């Protein structure tokens, strides 16, 4: 006798025999007329908890948290650091030269001839920035003097624009050259500064020299004192100036959104996602934030969707550090700016609704966006540090969100004596969704032997004005099984159940978003029933 026949007969007999021990009955010896009793028995039961369903899809890059109301939120945190001072101003070696001509002085007697001259020289960065002052961390100021005079030259250069930080003592470089020749003097620039003149990137050098001539020496007016000046190997502790406008790349990095890569087929739309950028700017330079490079894609550069909206069309400002606060020994206090990207100022709902597998933060900016002539400063340690937070509260619309489960059939169920059968699915639903189920009977190799599609098994419970479920909703669905399906159950090893969930659709223009609470559950029970021909 088959397992099903034995199961059904035990059920019938138990109601009649009461306390009899049905295990003592030998079924194969019983000969009775054919009856068509109804039978049913369970195949399996499972309960889904929402925090578990979502938690297994978040991966390593996203965290799942719940607030005091059990509302689930997907969270991602990252940091971006920018410290490329050369994007604003770059100062290489400053190389300048000058020449002073000697006056005419005929031979006749021993004498001393003065030669005095001032020079205005350029201290120019690589760009068009106007420098106010620079404070040196390291560097050397070198002056090489060449004389074509026949007498003894005693010289002194005063560079008043370059002086000590503490006492404002100017650089003075002195030396002597006996006859035609060259001499080099230098000054270590550590703890020195150069204050430039009038926003023109210039500084002055004053030459004061005398030449001692013998009675037979003469100056024809063709003799010269020439110099080559080099500010070399400079590093700076502080630079002031009007740096103008520059386009900079504040950050360009990507994150993998494992949750979306797993859920891409499911069509999730989030009602209130946001990205928060907390900027800490220790540059004395305000920067206009350009978020047009924030892009979601499929992980390989395809299916791109870029951030758009008012946040892109009217870029917000990253405040700069107070230009009046720093000193050469005290770093200026960094400025704080918080910029939020949300559904009211961007297309972030559509961007995340595209289910990107990767999100690229191509955050750029323009310095001094409103006034290119304002005073700025920077230091070696100046940085723009950004804390990035992505918050995605689970207030959602769903269109065929998919979850699968499998129930074991062992070696198959022999339903050869079944006249007709059905699968009964009972749900107790706290999720704010309706659900359609697809069933597939599969063999050990997961080959589909029989399938039944599009059965409504889940009805959305009542949802209040806050988008929350107040009471679970029960539903029972009977799915008929054809003779082909009966054969499949005999040969199958398991049933694959695919559940497709959707939130209620609005009948007006108002969008409906439901809240996903962590402790929402869905209990799913699956059973088999039908009519059986039994030989009694």
The gross shape turns out to be rod-shaped
Estimate the helix proportion, in percent: under 10%
Overall number of domains: 3
Q: Strand fraction band? A: over 45%
Secondary structure category: mainly beta
Count of beta strands: 32
Using the coordinates shown, work out and report the CATH topology of the largest domain. Jelly Rolls
Unreliable stretches, pLDDT < 50, 5 or more residues? Answer: 1-35
Q: Which radius of gyration do the C-alpha atoms yield?
A: 43 Å
Please work out how many helical segments DSSP would assign: 6
CATH architectural label of the largest domain: Sandwich
How confident overall, as mean pLDDT? 83
Largest sheet entry: 10 strands, antiparallel
CATH level 1 name of the largest domain: Mainly Beta
Oligomer designation: single chain
Termini separation: 11 Å
Can you put this structure into words, describing what you see?
- The chain has three domains: 36-57 and 398-535, Jelly Rolls (Sandwich), CATH 2.60.120; 72-87 and 243-393, Jelly Rolls (Sandwich); 94-241.
- It is built from six helices and 32 strands.
- It has helices spanning 3-17, 50-58, 258-263, 310-313, 348-353, 483-491; strands spanning 34-35, 38-49, 63-66, 72-82, 94-101, 111-122, 130-147, 152-164, 170-178, 181-188, 192-195, 202-213, 224-242, 247-256, 268-270, 274-281, 287-297, 305-306, 317-318, 335-341, 358-367, 376-378, 384-393, 395-408, 418-429, 434-442, 448-458, 473-481, 494-502, 514-515, 521-532, 534-535.
- The strands form six sheets. Strands 5, 6, 7, 8, 9, 10, 11, 12, 13 and 22 form a ten-stranded antiparallel β-sheet that branches. Strands 15, 24, 26, 27, 29 and 30 form a six-stranded antiparallel β-sheet that branches.
- It is rod-shaped and about 145 Å long.
């Amino acid at each position: 006798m088959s397992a099903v026949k034995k199961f059904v007969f035990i059920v019938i007999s138990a109601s009649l025999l009461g306390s009899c021990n049905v295990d003592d009955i030998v079924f194969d010896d019983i000969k009775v007329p054919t009856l068509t009793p109804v039978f049913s028995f369970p195949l399996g039961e499972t309960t889904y908890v929402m925090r578990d369903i979502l938690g297994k899809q978040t991966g390593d890059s996203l965290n799942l948290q719940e607030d005091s109301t059990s509302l689930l939120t997907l969270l991602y945190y990252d940091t971006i650091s920018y410290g490329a001072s050369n994007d604003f101003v770059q100062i290489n070696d400053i190389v300048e030269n000058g020449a002073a001509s000697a006056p005419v002085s005929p031979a006749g007697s021993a004498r001393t001839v003065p030669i005095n001259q001032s020079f205005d020289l350029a201290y120019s960065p690589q760009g068009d920035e106007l420098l106010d002052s620079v404070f040196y961390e390291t560097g050397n100021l070198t002056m090489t003097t060449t004389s074509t005079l026949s007498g003894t030259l005693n010289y002194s250069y005063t560079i008043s624009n370059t002086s000590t930080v503490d006492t404002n003592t100017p650089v003075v470089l002195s030396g002597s050259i006996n006859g035609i020749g060259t001499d080099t003097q230098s000054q270590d620039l550590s703890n020195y500064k150069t204050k430039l003149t009038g926003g023109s990137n210039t500084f002055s050098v004053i030459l004061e020299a005398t030449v001692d001539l013998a009675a037979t020496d003469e100056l024809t007016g063709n003799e010269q004192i020439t110099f080559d000046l080099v500010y070399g190997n400079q590093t700076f502790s502080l630079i002031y100036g009007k740096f103008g406008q520059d386009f900079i790349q504040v950050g360009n990095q990507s994150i993998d959104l494992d949750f979306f890569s797993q859920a891409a087929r499911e069509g999730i739309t989030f009602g209130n996602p946001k990205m928060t950028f907390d900027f800490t700017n220790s540059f004395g330079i305000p920067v206009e934030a350009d978020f047009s490079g924030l892009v979601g894609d499929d992980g390989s550069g395809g299916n791109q969707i870029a951030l758009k909206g008012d946040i892109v069309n009217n870029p917000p400002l990253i405040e700069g550090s107070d230009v009046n606060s720093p000193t050469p020994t005290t770093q200026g206090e960094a400025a704080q700016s918080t910029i939020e990207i949300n559904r009211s100022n961007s297309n972030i709902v559509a961007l995340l609704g595209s289910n990107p597998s990767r999100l690229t933060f191509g955050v750029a900016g323009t310095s001094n966006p409103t006034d290119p002539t304002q005073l700025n400063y920077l230091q070696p340690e100046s940085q723009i540090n950004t804390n990035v937070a992505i918050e995605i509260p689970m207030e959602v619309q769903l269109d065929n969100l998919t979850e699968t489960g499998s129930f074991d059939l062992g070696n198959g169920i022999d339903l050869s004596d079944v006249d007709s059968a059905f699968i009964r699915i009972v749900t107790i639903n706290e999720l704010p969704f309706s659900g359609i189920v697809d069933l597939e009977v599969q063999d050990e190799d997961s080959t589909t032997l029989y399938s039944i599609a599009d059965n409504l098994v889940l009805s959305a419970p009542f949802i209040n004005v806050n988008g929350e479920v107040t009471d679970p909703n029960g539903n029972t669905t009977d799915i008929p099984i054809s003779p082909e399906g009966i054969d499949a159950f005999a040969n199958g090893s398991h049933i694959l159940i695919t559940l497709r969930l959707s939130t209620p659709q609005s009948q007006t223009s108002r969008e409906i978003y439901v809240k996903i609470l962590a402790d929402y559950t869905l209990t799913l029970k699956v059973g088999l029933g039908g009519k059986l021909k039994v030989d009694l």
